[in-house]
Amino acid sequence: MNCIAAYDFGTSAVKAVLVNEKGTILAIREKSYPLLKPKPLYVEQDPKDFWEAVCEVTKGVLADAKTAPEAVKGISFSVQAVTLIPVDRDGQVLCHAISWLDGRAEAQAEKINTRCGGPVVRSQDYQARILWLKEEEPELYEKTAYFLECDGFLQYKCTGIMAVDRDHPGILKRHPAIQEYYDQTLADVDGEKLPPMVEACERYGVLDEKGAEELGLVPGIPVFGGMIDVPAAAAGCGCIRAGDAHIYLGSSGWLSAMIDRPYETSEGTYQLNSITPGLMIYGGCTNSCCMMQNWAIDCFYAREHEELGDGIFDWLAVEMERVPAGCDGLYAAPWLFGEQFPIADPRIRALFFNIEEKHTRAHFMRAVLESLCFSMRGQIDIYKKDTGLAVTEVGANGGGAQSAFWMQMMADVLQVPVHVPEAARHSGAVGAALAAAIGLGWCGLENIDDFVRTEHSYHPRKELAALYDQKYRRWKRLYECIRELSWEINKE
Question: Going by DSSP bridges, is the β-strand pair 13-20/418-421 parallel, antiparallel, or unpaired?
């Protein structure tokens, strides 16, 4: 059976899936890799870990599916965005990858924003980070031929091609209305160090002999442009039409919506190209989503987690059902790594507030999930303010979407229906596979519903609307109450 090897390349692990021509997943493998934190605000990863993990999981899914390498007809990546990998002209990595979580470039972001007359970039954005390297590591900057992101690095390892020609017909064309923004924010950076990109469904190149040997595949397989995580997760959730919205609940989390034109937007937002020609994706990222959930599990339920493994999530759902909606007045905020959206502050940190003697560990666990629902609601509010558009329903994917308990809570907090597709945890890889399937001519966007199918829907309980409205309004005030003190504590 013909299939596609697709990869969902996240903050802490890569998932490889084999997807057949009907969008059915044949096999899944996952491999984790570490985050490195050498200094405050610094978050890095070793690109060697990325490629070794890709090679391991590729061989694993072939073995699990009992599929011959010759059956793989395309390769496509969904990757974490804004993770920079400087390489020289021979493709040698010059330093650790600077993770999208890294916040070291505050001064450079401020410099760019001053010139642009407004908050157009953050310390996490690649413009600020490249300027940081230019100012703080000038020798490394000069040695750098290209600042690759994860997709460019992995595609290079597959094909030996570091960048396509700038006059190539598949080069991604930025929307004219935001070209001035890019020109301003890149004014301090040598543009030749930024490799161009191809469209998601277009061939980047073909698997070369070296890449094929390391992956356990055959040479000549087309490698497609693929996508960063947000548009891939949107596609894997069936969100391809104007107005479609989806929530992703992985290590990080976000709400995004399909828009048909660019908007003037709030700090912390992004507007990305989507898999659908002519449409963009509006959104913003909550830095710590399931990372916050997992931290809470390890703090409050370490023994049970060790005993139950992945069964801990179903066990916790029963535990949290005993806690009323609203957590008896307990509040949480999920800012373990600072925050990007719906607030933009790299120095803010997570908290619990209003603790009383009656609160149990189940209260703390439920408060964490509530806080992440409030974060998504905050993103919807800013989307409405920026665009004037409403969200009437959302798709949901990522590992967190597998929890029926959490998805019902999400519907209750947002007060809109939440739809979860099949294989929700792997829908980023499904979105990447969709790009390859379109590129191979196996399907088109017009029959997306045949490739991506809804498995569960959750509808809001109206009787909880007033309770969550009040708690959400109070939750939003927490940030302003602690911002100044948090900056004082975390200024070093």
Answer: unpaired
